[in-house]
Amino acid sequence: MTAGTLIVIAKEPVPGRVKTRLQTEFTPAEAAALARASLADTLAAVRATGVRRKVLALDGASATTPPGFTVVPQRGDGLDERLAAAFEDAYAGTPMLLIGMDTPQVTPALLRADWTEYDAVLGLTEDGGYWCLGLHRPDSRALLGVPMSTDHTGADQLARLQSLGYSVLLLPTLRDMDTPADAAALAMAYPELRTSRLHRRLQHTAHPSLLFDKALEGAPVVATGSDGRTVASLSAVDRWQAPADAVDRLALSRCEGPVLDIGCGPGRIVTALAERGVPALGVDISAQAVMLTNERGAPALRRPVQEPLPGEGRWGTVLLMDGNIGIGGAPEALLRRCAELVRPDGLVLVEVDPDDDLDDTAPIVLRSASRRSHPLPWARVGSRAVLRYALAADLLATEDWRADDRAFLTFRRCSTAVASTPLRAARR
């Protein structure tokens, strides 16, 4: 072993600033947690080498100094400048090996590799970068101007060292953790790592809204029961993203403004109402859904329906389209909330499951290719169950109608509806 100093170059694991490519499957906070775990695994491997001088070159602030490490701030603009500065700031007259924080599987044996007979040592990564670089003394010529964060950075770094006449020992190529696929592969190959243990926990604890957002972005997501049986696919997202169709417009023709669309999704209903000149507001807990609605030029608010909402008791119509009667897993409570939101003579329009006899209030789990959510309170209910829940919520059904295999019910508050008016049924 020739390195007298081991340098770990790292970025403070702040959500939104680190591991942004992991955020295709993880939240910013989860991606930062994986980065923090990867750094902890790397620091542990460095400690296990027995090397006495250990330096952490940190971009950002650290609440505590890792035991056995000297912390120096990174300096310089680009990564090439920061790497060169890290070698200069850590130099104590002995060879130095610098590694990143993205290869938590690195071992003490790799870090103790003997490169006494070489001028430099380099460890490449599978994505074209490199995970370590060793120099006997600082040499800015070896780093400044080398293109960083490309699929040929490792090759360019090797070429630069060789152009300076350096003999280079190549260490084994490692996979770094940049993407969800990288994180999954490392967790499978190295299950004992802190990073791997965290990854396994995160795989089964995604927030449902995260996976719903991924579905809105086009990722395949299904809903399953607690037994793993698929109960629904979010393939309907294509319909949600599209403009309102003929059945949607038929439902909207019944609306009395202003309209509150609960669980508005990407906003096709609110947009269609605006085009009709009907004032409407969408509410959803998904940030992606609200953003997509706003991008369509329609108003939407990110808020659970259970929290205070604008215009309570003054809405002409409250909508529960696309099976949103299932929100919260308690249809009676949701219908009571709708009765609070609508004005005394207003309308509650509910899309129900086409299976009239369905009454399933068991939680569901959303699953993508690599993650599953924690249980989500939800209900899948047909017309008979909804009629029963509505009556308990002091809502009287005024119409039962279907079109193109979709089923709908409309209600008014019992205090203003004429109880003797028969329920009208319509089919198309």
Share of residues in strands: 15-25%
Q: Spans with pLDDT under 50 lasting ≥5 residues?
A: none
Radius of gyration: 29 Å
Classification by helices and strands: alpha/beta
Summed up, the domain count is 2
Biggest sheet features: 8 strands, mixed
The CATH class designation of the largest domain is: Alpha Beta
Protein name: Glycosyltransferase A (GT-A) superfamily protein (DUF2064 family)
GO molecular function, one term: transferase activity
InterPro entries: Nucleotide-diphossugar_trans, SAM-dependent_MTases_sf, Trfase_1_rSAM/seldom-assoc
Keywords: Transferase
Describe it.
There is one protein chain. The chain is α/β, with parallel strands linked by helices. 29% of the residues lie in helices and 25% in strands. Helix 1 (28-47) links the parallel strand 1 and strand 2 (53-59). The longest helix has 20 residues, at 28-47.
